[in-house]
Amino acid sequence: MIQIRKAQTGDEIAIYELIKELAVYEKAPEEVSITISELKEHLFEDNICDALVATYNNEVVGFTLFYISYSTWKGKCLYLEDFYVKENYRKHGIGSLLFQETIEIAKSIKAKRLDWQVLDWNDIAINFYKKQAVQLDSAWINGRISFDS
Known about the structure:
By secondary structure, the protein is an alpha+beta fold.
């Protein structure tokens, strides 16, 4: 049985493992520097982000992690930072359920849009999003500065 629910204290361990799987999939496992305790703090104490988990027979098999962002042109938005379903559980509609529930959260907070990024080589994800009738915009170049703390 598949269930989509808001992440709860204790889920940070499974979410962390999924984050590491996602990093391997995206060919950047060395980039994960967050700890489980930091993730727990950010999700459940500081509330700077939120997450949904997909469970199958009470095992966490997927997640979305998101936070409120702001557009000077549109106003309040929701940014989908990560979205991942374990490979063995794909093609069972779990990704669609997670994505649709994330959209519902964006609508419920009256966000003007939902934003995310997808790697240009990730054909599986790109094809998933195309099936969701979304806009994929290749016109923007991402900028980033990383800080050691």
